[in-house]
Amino acid sequence: MEKPVLLVQGLVKRYGGIQALGGVDFEVVPGEIHALCGENGAGKSTLVKILGGLEAPQEGTVTIDGVAIDFGQRTDPRLLSIVHQELSIIPHISVLDNVMIGDPRVGEIYIRARYRAEARHRLDEIGLGHVPLDAPASGLTLAEQQLLEICRAMMRGAKILILDEPTASLSDAEIQHVFKAVRWLRDQGTAIIYISHRLPEIFELTDRVTVFRNGQRILTKPTSGWTNEELVAQMIGRAIQPAHSVPAQDLRQRPVVLELRGFELPGRLRPVDLTVRAGEIVGVVGQLGSGGNALVEALAGLEPRYGGEILFEGASRDLRSIPAAMAAGIGYVSEDRAGKSLFLGAPIEVNLTSAILAELQSAGVLRFGTARSVAQDLARRFQVDVRRLPLPVNSMSGGNQQKVAIAKTVAQKPRLLLLNEPTRGVDVGARSEVYRELKALAAQGLAVVYFSTDLEELRELSYRIVTVFRGRIVRDVAVENTSMEGILADILRGSAESGEAAA
């Protein structure tokens, strides 16, 4: 095997009494795509922070291209660049300026014309050929911003590129743009560390896989030598049971919680009818921009310019604001947990109870003991380490942050729970735990509607799947009557038969 471009030896990192890494050895060679897999909390995020110079270990060394990195400062982006799961795009400046931020070639005098041709070429390669260089980044979709982050790293020409959940918010077509760019970088000799909880991506894209568990490197071998079952078992250290089971009770006898009549969003969603009953879990699927995610956001009070009628528990409701939706008994979990769901610098226990503070006070004074007890109960329900509750939520991995965001909303005891990409960045073990909790809530009568671009998730979690294509519902069927191939066909090109019916 070729000489490693990245060599990690004996890395130890502790946070108080919690050991995040316990003597980890790890290496990557030039021109390979190396998957880093493991549950949330396995040590992947800690390793990435150390490699980027954001954290310093208590023990161990890291060398890049034979040179030891200085743990006291950011790693030179020409040696190693990271595309983090949480975006760092600055919305009010141009696409070109976002691409060039942090580029070592930019000195005190920034002459944009020098970089326009190269930036245009890289944007074209990654599937953003339609995006003007001078347009503000605020006009890009979340998926386009993710691709822009990857373009920024490509411009720096780093020897090592770390991609942390790069496709978590992308559609299938956009994922292929990412894959194309990643393979191109590999062919140029770049070493790529690829972190994803979507196992099909691991098997399709990567050359080798390393599994982390409980702060230890468990096993490294070529991707072709793994099976899906073996990889999952090594990641979680136990056999995993499928969470999906179609409810035995006849849901058609349950009361209607939500009914949409001619509901529409100008330019985004044509008039649709939809009924959701107590105890149902309805998955909404469609490519980003299809109108599926806009439907969920509108029901959460985020889209004031809607038409048609919304009936909630039999009464017509005006849900043109977030307070109106919350007052009606609707809870919402955003796909952007960092920007819209969590207070990143606040303790985990504060985040868990932040939406129900009015219930935890007497005469305007917060009952701290009660609040802590409630936070501990929520943490246990969603498999969050109770010992970490006093720590800031940004000390957690992305997947554990998502569990906190869901638990925080569940604490409000909504009668309709809305979620946008509910397990974005959540590992296979934690996904199963989230699914079980959502199904337990549904069994108690909670209606759940969520938007997802993850076809496996839709099959695993949903009782019904609603497919949206070009702003209209083209299919609404029970999960047992669907296949992943059929769903994919619908979201990519629609169903002629169902499209005519919907019209």
TrEMBL record:
It comes from the Bacteria. Residues 6-239, 251-495 form the ABC transporter domain. SUPFAM superfamilies: P-loop containing nucleoside triphosphate hydrolases (SSF52540). Keywords: ATP-binding, Nucleotide-binding, Repeat, Sugar transport, Transport. GO terms for molecular function: ATP binding; ATP hydrolysis activity. It holds the Pfam family ABC_tran. PANTHER family: CARBOHYDRATE TRANSPORT ATP-BINDING PROTEIN MG119-RELATED, GALACTOFURANOSE TRANSPORTER ATP-BINDING PROTEIN YTFR. This is Sugar ABC transporter ATP-binding protein. It comes from Paenirhodobacter populi.
